[in-house]
Specification:
Two copies of one chain form a homodimer. Chain A folds into two domains: about 1-55, Orthogonal Bundle (Arc Repressor Mutant, subunit A), CATH 1.10.10.60; about 55-195, Tetracycline Repressor, domain 2, CATH 1.10.357. In chain A, about 75% of the residues lie in helices and about 0% in strands. Chain A has helices at about 10-30, 35-40, 45-50, 55-80, 85-100, 105-115, 120-140, 150-170, 185-195. In chain A, helix 1 packs across helix 6 (about 105-115), helix 4 packs parallel to helix 7 (about 120-140) and helix 5 (about 85-100) runs antiparallel to helix 9.
């Protein structure tokens, strides 16, 4: 548990620590990212750190939850306004890849979480899945998409996004820019997602 | 680099060290899995260890490559004998999930590799992708599957397997057995894969 800051200034200090920690965990890994490095990066004193977080592990968990909240918010905005589920998929995937481009630290942090904070890792995926399963279930029930198992489909599509983001954004080809998903890859991804979900054509 | 053992007995010793390391890395993580724990688990002396491996990092890389070889071998056998690409997908996915059930240590090791040995992690995925891309390219060219981007499709489907394996095998529901993929999940997965790949029905 970390203490909730009571003032705007407190909130800003807490956010600075989380931002610095996110960078440090991604760059050095949990074990090498010392509290000294994190507080120096945030421009706060060591004593200040302990006003907000009992220790490094709790801070790591907060970094995971903070990334998760922002990612889900971005994906919701990306799919808002879509008039059907396949358009919503397109907007959601676009927002997901754009978020990764702005936050490449997602990959190292989420991968290392398996050991550092497995419960936070699992919550990260489950929180994304919850809304996704509901959206796919509704679309499947209304015939907007094929009669798929909404939970299996949600996790499968999360896997598609995670693996393509790793391959084409974290490990770009030498002749590609490193931060964005290439347009042709995005379109090929959406072709697969559309084929997987669209109702049987008669 | 690790020295290649010249005798059968040497090969057996090396294999015992790799097997013990695989278990220790999965259970404790790279940093906590000491060479002492690994050699004790293998029943060999510390000095013997250094005849085969210069250190723990090189051993970790060998563990990744060993798992990778066995996984690819299992998937090849699983899809051998299929008369078309969609059947080969079914056999390959089945073999993949069965391998994970027998080797739950794949997840922690592959996830931690992001920090411990990123080059080995990348090779792990690329070695799986290489044969997969070729198979999908051939099937797409012959009209056996839809006209998909074979590389994007290969990585996307690798993501499907990895995420569903994590969700349903590493994190099973409380009322499910922990080691096997549930049949209904497997069938729902294959429905998505089939829809994603099958040629447009006319």
């Amino acid at each position: 548990m970390s203490a909730a800051p009571r003032t705007k200034r407190g909130e800003a200090t807490r956010a600075k620590i989380i931002a610095s920690a996110q960078e440090a965990f991604a760059q050095y890994g949990f074990h090498e990212a010392s509290i000294v490095k994190i507080t120096e990066g945030a421009g706060v004193a060591m004593g200040t750190f302990y006003l907000y977080f009992p220790g490094k592990l709790e801070l790591f968990r907060e970094v995971v939850f903070d990334l998760n909240r922002r990612l889900r918010h971005a994906m919701s905005r990306g799919s808002a306004g879509a008039t059907n589920r396949l358009d919503a998929e397109r907007g959601g995937f676009r927002a997901y890849f754009d978020f990764l481009a702005r936050h490449p630290e997602v990959y190292p942090i989420i991968r290392e979480a398996w050991f550092v904070a497995p419960d936070a890792l699992r919550l990260h995926y489950e929180r994304i899945a919850t809304g996704y399963v509901k959206a796919l279930r509704d679309a499947s029930a209304s015939g907007e998409i094929a009669d798929v198992d909404p939970e299996v489909a949600a996790w499968a599509l999360m896997g598609v996004g995670e693996m393509l983001g790793m391959r084409y954004q974290a490990w770009p080809d030498p002749d590609r820019a490193s931060d964005a998903i290439p347009d042709d890859v995005f379109e090929a991804c959406m072709q697969l997602v559309t084929n997987a979900l669209q109702p049987v054509r008669s």
